[in-house]
Specification:
The protein has 15 helices and five strands. With 451 residues, it is an all-alpha fold. The protein has two domains: 219 residues, Cytochrome Bc1 Complex, Chain D, domain 2 (Orthogonal Bundle); 189 residues, Cytochrome Bc1 Complex, Chain D, domain 2 (Orthogonal Bundle), CATH 1.10.760. Strand 2 and strand 3 form a beta hairpin. Helix 13 runs antiparallel to helix 15. The longest helix has 18 residues. The radius of gyration is 23 Å and the shape is globular.
Length: 451
């Protein structure tokens, strides 16, 4: 907590440095501030922050609570989320890679799918399958987004949800989160497995021998119909249930449960000015100053839902071109979706490829994305770091124009304050999610997966 003296000095520093942290051509200190007629009194942090928020586009507001959904549907989704029955080898569940103990990611820089053992970072120990291309994204508040996955390949369209994989029959009205759930289920590295694999109970993986999505959907339905705990629950929802209800339940569970609408920041935006400390308010003024973080992290979810190249060192078996792989447009090369920031302090590592370990590394990288290369000491020794000069030159040449380059005049002032502010985005209900974990799942397999 700042003392009155240090808070006053901090405010003075913030007011004095807005010009250099605002980018070229913008001097926020020249803007008039209503101080009730007393021009000798500087604005309070609350007044200055209100002024900055009024300039955001889209407007930064508190997020609304999630919609109310059928509790029976949500409960089916909860059981399925923690049940490895949806994976071909019966060894991984949704919760394996989206573990609340790791901020609804898995604590790994890149994903490890079926075949790895354990939970969280322990999955990288010993023999394990090849690393995936990207980090498992956290799931907080994803129902508020218009596109999912780091490259946005599942997105809201005018006629429903656009996705590269076929929907199950009758799934035209599925939600974005429900459609997203189909992709890891059909991905051989993540959940489906390879032809010839055996399940952890020694049976043939009957899903992996199939190639057509419709046939795989049918095989999963057959699995679930053979389990009374699922068949009875799904039949109660729809007597002729299908994969539509299965992924619909997963989407409903994530919508209702992985919410983050009660952070101290949301309380502040709703009028509780004492919800933030002076340090956090000061950090917010730096965050929302023009030319800073708000360039991409605006709106209620603190994301512009767009795709940007922020200059991260490529890692993995091949160079990940990001959004270009979806659109085919070279201008989208190295672009990845701006993540929402609710509960960001509960996640580590960060970014689409896990190359930035924590909030400190994030803020330092943004201070000089051209010249700095973050420490990669936290990466496993078997993760390939791509340091080809031509690739790195192309990466820097294509940096998003929103990035605060050194030549823009943006300084490193306020980075520690910004990190403090980001901690205020944590919904305390996210800290302990143990109540969500069922004691058992209808399949009888290991709750949460992991082998």
């Amino acid at each position: 907590m700042l003392s009155a003296g240090s808070l006053s000095r901090g405010l003075g520093l913030a007011l004095g440095l807005w010009a250099c942290t605002s980018g070229p051509g913008t001097d926020l200190t020249d803007e008039p501030v209503d101080t009730g007629g007393d021009t000798d009194q500087p604005p309070t942090l609350d007044e200055r922050l209100a002024e900055l928020l009024a300039l955001t586009d889209p407007l930064v507001t508190a997020v609304d609570p999630p919609p109310s959904l059928d509790p029976d549907l949500v409960e089916v989704g909860r059981l399925l989320f923690f049940d490895p029955i949806l994976s071909g080898n019966k060894d991984v569940a949704c919760a394996t890679c989206h573990d609340a103990e790791h901020g609804l990611s898995d604590g790994l820089p890149l994903t490890l799918g079926t075949g790895a053992r354990g939970r969280g970072p322990a999955r990288a120990q010993g023999d394990h399958p090849p690393w995936g291309r990207r980090r498992a994204p956290a799931l907080w508040g994803r129902h508020r987004l218009d596109a999912l996955f780091w490259d946005g390949r599942v997105q809201v369209a005018t006629d429903g949800v656009s996705a590269p994989l076929p929907l199950p029959a009758g799934g035209e009205a599925l939600s974005l989160l429900a459609v997203q759930a189909l992709h890891p289920i059909l991905d051989r590295a993540e959940m489906l497995g390879k032809s010839g694999d055996t399940t952890i109970d020694g049976q043939a993986n009957e899903l992996a021998i199939l190639d057509e999505p419709a046939a795989i959907y049918q095989a999963i339905e057959d699995r679930l119909r053979a389990i009374e705990g699922y068949d009875s629950r799904l039949t109660a929802l729809n007597e002729s249930w299908s994969m539509v209800e299965v992924v619909g339940a997963l989407g409903a569970y994530q919508t209702v449960t992985f919410d983050a609408s009660d952070s101290r920041w949301d309380r502040y935006l709703r009028g509780a000015t004492d919800a933030l400390t002076g340090e956090e308010k000061l950090g917010a003024t730096f965050f929302f100053a023009d030319g800073r973080c708000v360039s991409c992290h605006a709106g209620p979810a603190l994301t512009d839902q767009a795709f940007h190249n922020i200059g991260l060192q490529p890692v993995g078996p091949v160079v990940d071109i990001g959004r270009e792989a979806v659109t085919g447009d070279p201008d989208d090369r190295f672009g990845f979706r701006t993540p929402p920031l609710r509960n960001v302090a509960t996640q580590q590592p960060l970014t689409h490829n896990g190359t930035l370990l924590d909030l400190e590394a994030i803020t330092v990288h943004y201070a000089d994305p051209e010249g700095r290369r973050a420490s990669l000491d936290h990466l496993a020794s078997d993760i390939v770091v791509i340091d080809d000069e031509a690739v790195l030159r192309d990466l820097v040449n294509r940096l998003a124009p929103e990035m605060p380059l050194a030549s823009s005049g943006v300084t490193t002032v306020g980075l520690s304050n910004i990190r403090v502010f980001l901690g205020a985005l944590t919904d305390q209900s996210a800290v302990d999610r143990s109540r969500e974990v069922p004691s058992s799942v209808p399949s009888g397999l290991t709750v949460g997966g992991g082998g």
